[in-house]
């Protein structure tokens, strides 16, 4: 799956699934993805990597610029494969990666 989110209905409930980083092998600001109002969300990082992954959130009316890393962060920065639960409504979410080595994927799921 390319970077982005999909909203699907399963068993009468809306579920959000998406990819926030896909095989990131260089430092990246990440891509803002629409949460479609689904919560809670869980963001996970997976891969063989060293560096820092930071989860950003926003309630901006329109999608922020992907290079905008001045929005609030959520949870602690991740320095290994980990997850963070977002237990509040946010319109936008992204993961930025500051790379030392390796490749990382970041996924979001919620509902």
Q: How do the strands and helices of this protein lay out in sequence?
A:
Elements: E1 4-10, E2 13-24, E3 33-34, E4 41-58, E5 83-86, E6 92-110
Antiparallel strand pairs: 1-2, 2-6, 3-6, 4-5, 4-6
CATH topology: Jelly Rolls
**Distance between the amino and carboxyl termini:** 19 Å
Q: How many helices?
A: 0
Specify the CATH class.
Mainly Beta
Number of strands: 6
Number of discrete domains: 1
Level-2 CATH architecture: Sandwich
Q: Major beta sheet, specifics?
A: 6 strands, antiparallel
What is the C-alpha radius of gyration, as a whole number of Å? 13 Å
- Which word captures the global form? globular
Following the backbone from N to C, one meets helices and strands in this order, namely EEEEEE
Strand content: over 45%
Any key phrases for this structure?
6-stranded antiparallel beta sheet, Jelly Rolls, 111 residues, single chain
Structural overview:
Strands 1, 2, 3, 4, 5 and 6 form a 6-stranded antiparallel β-sheet that branches. The protein is built from no helices and 6 strands. It is an all-beta fold. The protein has one domain: Jelly Rolls (Sandwich), CATH 2.60.120. 0% of the residues lie in helices and 56% in strands. Strand 1 and strand 2 form a beta hairpin.
């Amino acid at each position: 799956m390319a970077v982005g989110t999909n909203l699907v209905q399963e068993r009468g409930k809306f579920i959000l699934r998406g990819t926030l980083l896909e095989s990131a092998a260089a430092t990246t600001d990440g891509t803002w993805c629409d949460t479609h109002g689904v919560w809670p969300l869980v963001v996970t990082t997976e891969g063989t990597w060293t560096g820092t992954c930071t989860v950003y959130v926003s309630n901006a009316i329109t999608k922020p610029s992907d290079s905008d890393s001045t929005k609030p962060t959520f949870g602690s920065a991740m320095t290994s494969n980990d997850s963070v639960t977002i237990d509040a409504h946010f319109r936008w979410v992204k993961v930025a990666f500051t790379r030392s080595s390796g490749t990382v994927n970041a996924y979001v799921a919620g509902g």
